[in-house]
Amino acid sequence: MRRDYDEVLESEFFALFQRYYDLERDANKQHDCGNYSLSRMYPLAELAGNPERELHIVHVAGTKGKGSTAHFISGMLGAAGLKAGLFTSPHLATVRERFQLDNRLASYEKLLDTASWLRSRLEKAGLEPSLFEIFTLLALRLFVVEGMSWAVIETGIGGRLDATNYIAAPRCTVITPLSFDHQALLGKSIEEIAAEKAGILKPGVPLVLAKQPYAAAEELILQKAKELGVAVHRPTALPPKGLLPEKYPGFLQDNFSVALKVMELLELKPDWNVFQLPKLRARCELLRQEPPLILDAAHNGDSMQKLVASLKQLYPNTMFTVVLGAVKGKNLADMLEALLQLPAQFVLTNPHSAKESALPELEACAKRLGLPVLASIEKLERAEQLPEGPLLFTGSFFTALIGEEIFGGGGHEETLRASS
Questions:
Q1: Is-contact 266 62, C-beta < 8 A?
Q2: Quick one: pLDDT band at residue 29, thresholds 50, 70, 90?
Q3: Which helix (H) or strand (E) element contains residue 99?
Q4: How far apart are alpha carbons 142 and 135 in whole angstroms?
Q5: How far apart are the first and last CA of the chain?
Q6: What does the DSSP assignment read for 141-176?
């Protein structure tokens, strides 16, 4: 059972945009320069009343940590007494997770009202945007309708050609740590990936740049910033004492510090007495205390390494059964090599997604690397198909979704926040 999910209302929402859905499912086509550009966003924005012009926007890109950083910024804006909307992707249990108002999921009623308004205008105008392009404008329109003054907008994939990048004048931009992901779309080298992410920089708009694991990526971003006259700010402040849990992973503290630098840059002061750490779904999220049951959407080597390090810190000498599934196009070897460092046995499966599964490749890679595989289950739907004991669902948001669907409605919900 999925949390905060109503099957009828969820279906009603997606039915409004059914004709646009296939455009998003073909990710290679969507992000190919030959048939994808920001040109579709401008008439779409005009159709929606150019809501971006009525909002103070913080635009966040990156490979690792952009989701948690966006949530932290939104939470801090609220604690500073400001009304803030948050747009992130993808979602785990319900589309409502993508659209947050004052750090709460937008209600189906509000979402359907604005979605119906936008769909009717789309039909009359004859525009053919992708679903993500629609969602971007839907979020911004919803924020304006509901009286938000600020918006934290997370890119979908990349930056330069991402639908969110039509926003011409954000208050600041943020780039979190970059690593290798979506290489078929963004480029095979770290420099190519950095160039795509740096595409969100705007002339004269300040950038908060997180500590980068690759010097070449940082060099390229700094050069782009210099060309555009962008002031680059580095996170320096530590979280207020006692605000974060005692066992908080260092890299997540780094993400929190990035959000603090954004507040400092914007000259905003959160009231820490009212600030609440966001609940981050499928980011080392603990659904059950004993034995631990964890959902994490790690889907590249870097994020998997950080997940494994966090689990070894939080659960020393614990043997997990890892339910692992991935979609095609991921670097499976990097993920599996990281997971080999975790005391675990593995159940391989198909993610619950319309995207093509990499299960055959995963099986072959696991065999080649000597991963201790307990079973390979094509269709995992019931708790009885898994052994008892500690469980981890990972490899994709869509694999974390399996854990959500089997266990999400009944367990104790707590976020460890050991992964962005």
A1: no
A2: low
A3: strand 99-101
A4: 10
A5: 24
A6: HHHHHTT-SEEEEE-SS-SSSSGGGG----SEEEE-
Q: What is the pLDDT of residue 415?
A: 38
88: which DSSP letter? Answer: -
The pTM assigned to this predicted structure is 0.90
The neighbour count for residue 170, using CB atoms within 10 Å, is 23
Q: What's the one-letter identity of residue 82?
A: L
291: tokens are: 């034995």
Half-sphere exposure of 23 (CA within 13 A, CB side): 18
Pairing assessment for the beta strands 373-377 and 344-349 based on DSSP bridges: parallel
Distance CA 56, CA 14 (A): 28
Distance of CA 240 to the CA centre of its chain: 25
**φ/ψ (deg, to 5) at 246:** -60, -45
Please, are residues 367 and 338 in contact by the beta-carbon 8 Å criterion? no
Q: Token pair of 83, please?
A: 């009304």
Q: What is the DSSP string of 268-307?
A: ----TTT------TTSSEEEETTTTEEE----SHHHHHHH
**What order do you get walking across the sheet with 56-61 strand by strand?**
104-105, 99-101, 84-87, 150-154, 56-61, 172-175, 207-209, 232-233
Separation of alpha carbons 392 and 244, rounded Å: 24
Instruction: Render 7-67 in DSSP notation, one character per residue.
Output: HHHHHHHHHHTHHHHHHHH-HHHHT-TTT--GGGHHHHHHHTT-GGGGSEEEEEE-SSSHH
Tell me if 150 sits within 8 A of 82, measured CB to CB: yes
Please give the C-alpha separations between residue 96 and each of 3, 13, 48, 99, in angstroms, as whole numbers. Answer: 11, 10, 20, 5
Q: Tokens 């995992």 belong to which residue?
A: 380
The CB density around residue 5, as the number of other CB atoms within 10 Å, is: 20
Interval 96-146: pLDDT, tens: 999 999 999 999 999 999 999 999 999 999 998 999 999 999 999 999 999
Q: Which residues pair with 348 in a beta bridge?
A: 324, 376
Q: How far apart are CA 20 and CA 309, in angstroms?
A: 40
CA–CA separation, 275 vs 269, rounded Å?
A: 11
